[in-house]
Amino acid sequence: MKYDYQQFYRHIAAPFRQHPVALSLLRGINLVIVWIMYLVYILLLLWAAKKQLDTLWKLIIIPGIGFLILSLIRQRINAPRPYEKYAISPLIPRAKTGDSMPSRHVFSATVIAMCGLYFNISWGIILLFLSIGSAITRVLGGVHFPCDVVIGFICGLVCGFFLFVV
């Protein structure tokens, strides 16, 4: 049986196209998760600068190096986005081409979640769930394939793991 991504995407996007409130909610959740993660990261850096200055470098260097490596790999792969490869209209408006694999949004959210996990297990788990929420919204929004967000999530976990071993 051949996998038909266009049909899959039309199926998962249909409820959002039929219900404008659901579409607004999807777009809003996507945006809110992005801003929550950025805000959490800034707060973690400020907290570490005040309380645990010796770990601040980990919170900057490890995610930073991971982000740069992921960006270079993603640029090298230059995978097309779903709306480039198939005749679909994404629910989350996006004009960017290429650089779909792996998802940098999901990677960043996951690394930030791992930074949170480094300091507090409960908050880290909540942030990991938000990272998964980001992955889901990116696929539902039509800006990434499922494999893009899964690889982004795994890369974020691997990068974040270094916080615990360095």
TrEMBL record:
Q: SMART domains attached here?
A: acidPPc (SM00014)
Which region is the signal sequence?
none
Keyword terms of this UniProt record: Membrane, Transmembrane, Transmembrane helix
What InterPro entries has UniProt attached to this entry? PAP2/HPO, PAP2/HPO_sf
Q: Determine if Membrane is one of this entry's keywords.
A: yes
Where does the sequence pass through the membrane? 21-49, 55-73, 106-131, 143-165
The UniProt entry, under Pfam families, shows: PAP2
Q: Is Nucleus there in the keyword field?
A: no
Which residue numbers delimit the Phosphatidic acid phosphatase type 2/haloperoxidase domain? 55-164
Identify this protein by name. Answer: Phosphatase PAP2 family protein
